[in-house]
Design brief:
Rossmann fold, 13 strands, alpha/beta, disordered C terminus
């Protein structure tokens, strides 16, 4: 039997988390020869996720350099990918999300006439500058991809509005929920000594559009919250980018109940989400994961390409506004009813079967039979059930 060569590309930690269930599902297919390409747009954070899921990169571009511009990163990666695609000759390439890796791989595959499957397709803010450059990356990838694996019906509608053929859009749910449910079943160790009887507020903030004055406002709001609530504890794994690290430590480093630490590996971070009372974050993945764990999220952005959780009332946008961050966080700390309204344990983004649905589509394309068939009893308009919180 001729094995179909499928090249799965990951560049950053979120890509690795969300692509891992797809890679593992494909590795269980007798017809698939899976090759994993790591661009290493994030080096250390990417490696630890691949290790956690027991995935090895077959090809490693090790592309990242200190302080390189997006133009330099894109240009170097495009040249390296040209050589990889000529040598590998994959039948299909899968990319995930909205990073520079995704856009560059999609463009290189288009030049080589290799079909592209876009995992987590159709997310839109309709503002090319926010988030930057991710909105442009996913819009442009959407013009190049053959299969659009949309996480929600809303994402499908976005793609239809852009003129993508309905037959090329498959609503799968988001693979991040596959990864989360796989991980939450394990015994997880946070690895940080926190007071077990105190409430924990988990914080992440690293997005490029918040650098400078907006991030300073965020940190001042966090300082006010820590000082106003001395009996609560705050955990902030600080991103290594100097634009984040220097400001965070300067403003927050002296607070006794503010625990600043290095970025957490994936498993400890899931443990931190499980342990948290609520989360303050600008992460897209956290907006998807935390609702399934029953954790309210205050999002440090003015817009989100993941509106479903906002519409369900379990995620709230607060931007980089000092006043709004303090007000909404204090409400969650002080008002049990407001907290309960957001801590409902729903999952608008998936049911844990997204990866298998993607495998089924590829199996149909290659006219082979997948070992499991997640689409046999579900139509294209996937209905995502409510999930019990994984606590």
């Amino acid at each position: 039997m001729y094995h179909k060569k499928i090249l799965c590309v990951v560049g950053t930690r979120p890509e690795a988390i969300k692509m891992a269930p797809v890679i593992l599902a494909l590795q269980n297919q007798s017809w698939a020869k899976v090759r994993v390409l790591a661009t290493a747009q994030h080096r250390q954070m990417l490696d630890q996720v691949l290790h956690f899921f027991d995935i090895e990169a077959d090809i490693d571009l090790n592309i990242m350099r200190p302080n390189q511009s997006l133009t330099t990163l894109t240009g170097r990666m495009l040249l390296d990918l040209d050589e990889v695609l000529l040598a590998e000759k994959p039948d299909v390439v899968l990319v995930q999300g909205d990073t520079t890796t995704v856009l560059t791989v999609s463009l290189a595959c288009f030049y080589h006439r290799i079909p592209i499957g876009h995992v987590e397709a159709g997310l839109r803010t309709w503002d090319m500058q926010n988030p930057f450059p991710e909105e442009a990356n996913r819009v442009l990838t959407g013009r190049l991809a053959q299969w659009h694996f949309a996480p929600t019906e809303g994402s499908r509608q976005n793609l239809l509005n852009e003129g993508i053929a309905d037959s090329n859009i498959i609503v799968t749910g988001n693979t991040v929920i596959d990864a989360l449910l796989m991980t939450a079943k394990r015994e997880l160790d946070l690895g940080i000594d926190l007071a077990p009887h105190k409430r924990l507020v988990l914080i992440t903030s690293h997005r490029r559009e918040n650098f400078g004055a907006p991030f300073e406002a965020i940190c001042r709001a966090l300082k006010t919250l820590a000082e106003t609530n001395p009996h609560d504890q705050f955990l902030y794994p600080v991103h290594p980018n100097p634009n984040v690290k220097h400001t965070a430590h300067a403003i927050l480093g002296s607070l006794s109940n503010m625990h600043l630490c290095e970025p957490l590996d994936y498993a400890p971070f899931v443990a931190a989400m499980q342990r948290a009372y609520f989360i303050i974050s600008d992460s897209g993945g956290v907006q998807e994961e935390a609702p399934a764990l029953g954790k309210p999220v205050l999002v440090l952005r003015e817009e989100t390409e993941r509106p479903e959780a906002v519409e369900q009332g379990v995620v709230k946008l607060v931007g980089a506004s000092y006043q709004r961050i303090v007000q909404e966080a204090q409400t969650l700390l002080d008002d049990p009813a407001a907290y309960a309204a957001m801590a409902r344990g729903i999952s608008p983004y998936g049911d844990g079967l997204a990866a298998q649905r993607i495998v089924d589509v590829l199996a149909e394309y290659f006219s082979v039979t997948s070992h499991l068939n997640a689409t046999a009893e579900t139509d294209q308009k996937l209905s995502i059930p409510e999930l019990s919180p994984c606590v």
